[in-house]
Amino acid sequence: MAGEFALIDKYFARPTPSAILGPGDDCALVQPSPGKQLAVTTDMLVAGTHFLPGTDPKNLGWKALAVNLSDLAAMGAQPRWVTLAGALPSVDEAWIAAFASGFFNCAQEYGVDVIGGDTTKGPLNVCITAIGEVEPGQALRRDGAKVGDQIWVSGRPGLASLGLAYLQGKVKLPEPWPRLCVGALEKPRPRVALGLALTGIASAAIDVSDGLLADLGHIAERSACAAAVKLVQLPHLPKGESYDADLRRIALECQLAGGDDYELCFTAPGSQSLAIAQIAAQLELPLWNIGEMVTGQAGEVTVFDPDGKPVEFNHKGYEHFGAET
To answer: Total domain count for the chain?
Structure first.
């Protein structure tokens, strides 16, 4: 059976041209670009909490890195380096090889070097630290939204949550939903290019990991204002076979509170609408204006129906240490 260092050398030792010193010593050494600030984020994925135990390891490798790059995207940072730590219940080289393949596919696509990490025996989990660079004073923070700013979201939030419900047998989906939803769940696309393009345009941003309403609430809370979301402005459902009212209701709940989407939710002054439309066209990525920031209790998010009446939802997002909020 291969030991820890043999496994690392075989599957995770790759060239790191952007680092002064990569894996193999007590620490990696990196040199930030002149005048840049470092943006640093860490995320852990635990089997049974963040992914199903039977998830394709190649997709898991991709997702493990992608969710961390999504945090950098939300700050408008350019990804540069990552470290990878994980616990494995046993040595399954086929599983490790597939995981490494997906992980490094994502690293190559987004231009990051893997500069170190650690492995140990234990319940299956993966923990990644990602480091990016941003111009001083240009990071997209959560505390910059102002009353009157428009609220935007990228892509189609809710697909990942629907994909999870489908895999768990909780919902039946018509074509082409299964492929779209499971793909969104298992292989999210961090919106790095969008985050970079929004620098100097967006007033605040966050990635949608715990649910659109919950994460928008974080912007509202940190920005000391409230948010008003309009149902009629939410992203439309995927085209396909007809679907009934129950599925529409479930899809709406997933869209607003499902999480695991890794789309960007951001705010911007109305004067930036044309610039945002141009970004959407350049990136071939739908960007949706779903409401605006308003006066009110800090952190409060209200959803309004077409008649302007508030709509109540039982859940607003995922909470790790308790019931869903």
So the answer is: 2
